[in-house]
Amino acid sequence: MTKKLLGFTVSTLILLEGSIIGRSMAKNKPSLFLVYPPNNHQTSSDKIFLIGTASLPGDVTINGQRIQQSPQGHFAPTFPLRMGANQFTLRHNNKTINVTVTRLSSTPVIPQGAAFANNSLTPNQSIATLPNKQVCFGAIAAPNAQVSVSLANQTIPLLPQNNSVELPPNSAILTDSNNPIPSPITQYQGCTIFTTFGNLGTPIFQLNLNQKTVSQKGMGTVEILNPNQLTIIEVIADEGVARTGPSTDNSRLTPLPKGTIASVVGQTGEWLQLDYGGWIKQKETKVVPNLTSPNALIRSVKFQKNNQETQVIFPLTLPVPVTVTQENNQLILTLYNTTAQTDTIRLEYEPMIKSFSWQQVSPDKIEYRFDLTSNQQWGYNLKYEGTNLIFTLRHPPEIKPNSQQPLNNIKILLDPGHGGDELGSVGPNGYPEKSVNLTVSQLLKQELIKRGATVYLTRETDQTVSLEQRAEMMNRLQPAIALSIHYNALPDGGDAMNTSGISTFWYHPQAENLAKFLHDYLVTKANRPSYGVFWNNLALTRPQITPAVLLELGFMINPTEFEWVTNSQEQTILAQTLADGITEWFKQQATSSILDK
Q1: pTM, entire model
Q2: % helix / strand / coil in the chain, to the nearest 5?
Q3: Consecutive H or E run containing 589
Q4: How far is CA 311 from CA 334, 348, 381, 390, 577, in A?
Q5: What tens digit of pLDDT does each residue of 75-114 get?
Q6: Longest pairwise C-alpha distance within the chain
Q7: 452 phi and psi, to 5 degrees?
């Protein structure tokens, strides 16, 4: 069982064990304590760190080797792992802890004879596609085999792919190990096209090796859609999650507003491919009966503004798929399946828009370009009201850089990560990240209030708050900026002893400048090491209503940095420094705004 933690996977057992032992330490104060890994831990990594603490004085040895400890006795050495079971014995004075870590292979087991590797046949679920589109098949088997697949009176040879590589998981970037990995297995692949409409049935895979032939049925059917009889769907989720492919491993696209209508041009399992290119889960849609075409017309476009935002209203005959692209001082809104009959648009320029243009870039796609008065964008929103697309651009907050309270009336949302049942990462002595997140957020709140800001927290106590609830609060409050406060950990294979520092994460380009500025400010002014600035697809950086940044203010699992993380005086200094950095960033935006004008 695993838990998703800040973009990478960490065993839930870490969190559970940290909670149990953290409580027992307060009562019993054991002389030797191991928080990670739990006994009988399994991993595909080639190395593992052992995180814990021991009372002073007295050395700690692991398998007879003396290990380095921090001034308070914490440790996090890394050891190589061989395939199979690895035994570790920790000793300190009269205390001994034994732990077993099993390294598992990350590659499929290749059969020795005429057989396919388990679960290697692809596609591994039912698919549907348009005629004359490539349908590809794959299998894993021993080298030198002859492999083919039969379907709809066709026999497609599957050829061995020499020099193939595998990509490590996204989390590999966190340990600087994201290079492609040469694949030791033989993968057989082949593609073809079909022109006949209808369900073609289930593919039959055949393998011949050493004069022995085996056949195996595929995992799903193949259907060829009739392009003149496509299913039309409507998005029923508030924000339909659109992706570049049919799985959660694929990257996100601009969410589709509720009410969006599109044709289904392909399907893989529970995922639907829509006519504009994105994929969406079937459960986020419903079929629209009796609609013959998802194409829309648009004529005039209306601008209207108030003190806080500019709305651009696109009256359409149907709600169509859209994407948004932010590029420095330009924002591009693209409407798909839409043809313009536009002659007149009435514009509102100040304070956001410098110029506006549009173009029918293809027969069914229109781009609307907004050149903005500043490089800094402050958030946007998309929704349908009937068939009107409402595109809202947020105005910059009023900043008073020379005031005694330069953040006066500026709304800031702070999100103390985790809480309640969610411990987050755990320090060498079992102290959970959720606690320090809340402490530093509360200190930061007071510092920002001193500077005039109106500050909200997603949680004020040790309570469980879901990611959805945090994002909903962000969308409802619409702060000038949102900061999620966290402390870091590493996946298996990292170097906990020698990895430390500040890192910031952003998703929308409107948050990039804020993330970079706060990272550089803390590294310089707080004299902290740098772990880097990351673009990352995180739940609390994805809301587009405001510049949203997630901060990792240090590593819980680094023995020495953990001592800094949990030092109350250092926490106060960090909160003051971070508040200064936020204030300075807003002042810079005020100056930039004046220069742009």
Answers
A1: 0.91
A2: 20, 40, 40
A3: helix 568-596
A4: 16, 9, 9, 7, 37
A5: 999 999 999 999 999 999 999 999 999 999 888 888 889 9
A6: 87
A7: 100, -5
